[in-house]
Write a structure and sequence with these properties.
The complex is a heterodimer of chains A (442) and B (183).
Chain A lengths: L8 E2 L4 E2 L7 H12 L4 E5 L8 E7 L2 E7 L5 E5 L14 E3 L3 E2 L6 E2 L5 E3 L23 E5 L2 E5 L7 H5 L3 H8 L6 E3 L4 E5 L3 H10 L4 H4 L1 H7 L6 H5 L7 E5 L5 E6 L4 H6 L1 H7 L4 H7 L1 H6 E8 L3 E4 L4 E7 L5 E10 L4 H14 L7 H14 L10 E2 L17 E4 L4 H14 L4 H14 L2
Antiparallel strand pairs in A: 1-2, 2-21, 3-12, 4-5, 4-7, 5-6, 8-9, 9-10, 11-12, 13-20, 14-20, 15-16, 15-22, 16-17, 17-18, 18-19, 19-20
Chain B lengths: L14 H19 L3 H5 L2 E10 L20 E5 L1 H12 L11 E13 L5 E14 L3 E15 L7 E10 L14
Parallel strand pairs in B: 1-6
Antiparallel strand pairs in B: 1-2, 3-4, 4-5, 5-6
Classes of the chains: A alpha+beta (442), B alpha+beta (183).
The structure holds FE2/S2 (inorganic) cluster and fe (ii) ion.
């Protein structure tokens, strides 16, 4: 059965049908039409510096190997043997010369080509054409400023077109210095018993939850002499911006107010991110390198990050009712040692499975998901109307469609894109609607 | 006939000390399970380092890279103040991951004491099993081993302070929606 997914999201009225988080048929369409077509974040350059270095990850629910090849390029292929489908590599990361299947021993090189078959002469009588039986390769892989992305869809638009007008905001995270960025070693990985879209949408669009969901963390980290509502998490939505891309990406942040970063990672990293890095100001301008505060962001569909706090994560779908979070900590390569150290500790302390902030997100999402077991619970739509119709596109500092920071415009954009993609809209149509929106907004 | 051991090839720690240290760890577990977090905090020295590295699945030849290193990310990398902040958070009444509170049961096993150079500091290894029940249906198990440095202190209410704790979990991907608990 094919569900008419476009009818489940009404971006104009600001409603979503709760079945998008729950129904197995919708989930299967999502794997096929969203995850098997979008550009997905795979790994950061710094995770696989040397030839033979690899990490294993997922694209949707499909396991892939991301490998540094001898020529320095990156190969990405299914972590699945073509003989009987055994998972080729069962480690999270490592270094290898080749990948040998533990079932019958077929061996693949660093590009995923089949190079060895036990008893090839004796059992196969040299009749197997190894060239035809390599691991399934990801057809498009690209690298933007050290962030490696891939898509299963050979007809997907180039990565930079896919990032589109979100690039201005992504650069505030990824393109601060010529030296670039790197991940600190180790990763926080855990399970939320909830649909991945709750997390992706929240990082895309939801500053609104922070003062409530994270009240205890904000309180615990705020020095006694600070006023939370004024200085840490301003409740005045005019003191920040939200941005929404027709491509589904979104971000939100305070502008020149909101001291949350200093309270989370300390004054030095906050200064470094908010004006203390002359090179970043030169490259990005003062709006992005000085005045943005406490930003949240999602690159559609499931790659999220918090500039400044510098956690980045993938929300891996694991069925409609579960996701895995894989989270890392990013630092500017040339950041001073004390900034780096504060970032390493502060990010883990706040945004991780034991993080002061993120513990409470898990409680929200898992309970939402449990309630959705109810038939009636799935019958009434959810309200995504905040700030509807109040966007502007001529902001002097922040380009594109923007709104106040407490807003659900980016959520509407996220769900609209999700519904268009999940319903199987072609790339031609998908990209035409983006061009049209850009023309209309002049 | 009962065997009389003059000296044991297994342990040189005397029974009295072993008993004392085990009781200390049981007391700590009890404070946590009874949510007496302020009394629990008092069991740690002011210069405590409370650390739980992350862990990844690795092949045997790369097992030395299994746990994140001290200069990499960790689940917990806390000094005393950070532990206090966690307790402040739980006590705020707005820490939704602990409001309503989790029900925890800490089981401490296999306590092995190593005498160090200084008679007032001990290296204490223990296995830990934590059952956590939350709301109606949440069930989590956190299992691992701990390496503690216990420091004898005359000022301490219970004679010892935990000066360092390293916790090594037996999960890589944490199969829980949060770790709003202490191990
Ligand atoms: S399944 Fe891999 S060699 Fe048979
Ligand atoms: Fe949150």
């Amino acid at each position: 059965m094919v569900v008419d997914i476009r009818g489940l999201v009404d971006a104009k009225q600001g409603t979503v049908d709760p079945r998008i988080y729950h129904d197995e048929e919708i989930y299967q369409q999502e794997l096929k039409n969203v995850f098997a077509r979008c550009w997905l974040f795979l790994a950061h350059d710094s995770q696989i510096p040397n030839p033979g270095d690899y990490v294993t990850t997922y694209m949707g629910e499909d396991p892939v190997l991301v490998v540094r090849k001898r020529d320095g390029s990156v190969g990405v292929f299914m972590n699945q043997c073509r003989h009987r489908g055994m998972r080729l590599c069962r480690a999270d990361a490592g270094s290898a010369k080749s990948f040998s299947c533990s079932y019958h021993g077929w061996t693949y090189d660093l590009s995923g080509n089949l190079v060895g078959v036990p008893s090839e002469d004796d059992a196969y009588r040299n009749e197997i054409n190894k060239a035809e039986w390599g691991a399934v390769k990801v057809p498009q892989v690209d690298n933007y400023r050290g962030f490696i992305f891939g898509t299963w869809d050979p007809s997907a638009p180039p990565l930079l077109d896919y990032i589109g007008d979100f690039r201005f905001y992504f650069d505030a995270f990824a393109d601060r210095t010529e030296a670039g960025t790197e991940l600190i070693g180790g990763a926080h990985r855990w399970v939320f018993p909830a649909n991945w879209k709750f997390a992706a949408e929240q990082f895309c669009s939801d500053m609104y939850h922070a003062p409530i969901s994270h009240a205890s963390a904000v309180l615990a980290l705020t020095p006694d002499d600070q006023d939370v509502d004024e200085e840490v998490f301003p409740m005045d939505g005019t003191k920040g911006r939200q941005f929404s891309s027709e491509l589904g990406h979104g971000t939100g942040f305070f502008v020149e107010s909101g001291d949350v970063l200093a309270n989370i990672v300390g004054q030095k990293p906050a200064d470094w991110f908010q004006g203390g890095n002359p090179e970043a100001i030169g490259r990005l301008g003062d709006a992005r390198a000085e005045r943005m505060r406490g930003a949240h962001a999602t690159l559609f569909p499931n790659f999220s990050f918090l500039p400044g706090i510098n956690t980045l994560r993938i929300w891996h779908p694991k069925g409609p009712n579960e996701m895995e979070v894989w989270a890392w900590t990013l630092v500017d390569k040339n950041a001073p040692a004390d900034v780096r150290e504060a970032q390493r500790i502060g990010t883990g302390r706040t945004f991780s499975v034991a993080g002061l902030f993120e513990q409470d997100d898990g409680e929200n999402w898992s309970e939402i998901q449990r309630v959705l077991r109810g038939h009636i619970a799935r019958r009434s739509s959810f309200n995504v109307q905040m700030g509807l119709g109040h966007e502007w596109d001529d902001d002097p500092d922040f380009p594109g469609k923007v709104n106040r920071v407490y807003c659900e415009m980016a959520a509407r954009g996220f769900y609209k894109r999700w519904a268009d993609m999940a319903s199987g809209m072609s790339w031609d149509e998908l990209m035409a609607s983006v061009r049209k929106a850009v023309e209309v907004s002049g | 006939m009962t065997a009389q051991l003059e000296s044991s090839p297994v342990t040189s720690v005397d029974v009295e000390l072993q008993h004392q240290i085990e009781q200390f760890l049981y007391l700590e577990a009890r404070f946590l399970d009874e949510r007496r977090f302020e009394e629990w905090l008092d069991l740690f020295s002011d210069d405590v380092h409370y650390w739980m590295p992350t862990r990844t699945v690795r092949y045997e030849r790369e097992l030395d890279k299994e746990f994140s290193a001290s200069n990499e990310v960790a689940h917990f990398d806390e000094n005393k103040r950070a532990l206090e902040e966690r307790v402040t958070r739980i006590r705020s009444g707005m820490a939704w991951a602990e409001e309503p509170p989790s029900r925890t049961r800490h089981m401490v096993h296999n306590v092995i004491i190593e005498l160090g150079d200084s008679p007032s500091e001990l290296l204490v290894r223990s296995n830990i099993l934590l059952y956590r029940g939350r709301l109606d249906r949440d069930v989590d198990f956190f299992v691992g081993f701990r390496e503690d440095v216990l420091r004898q202190s005359e000022d301490a209410d219970y004679g010892w302070l935990i000066a360092r704790r390293s916790i090594f979990l037996d999960q890589t991907l944490i199969l829980a929606k949060n770790m709003s608990i202490f191990l």
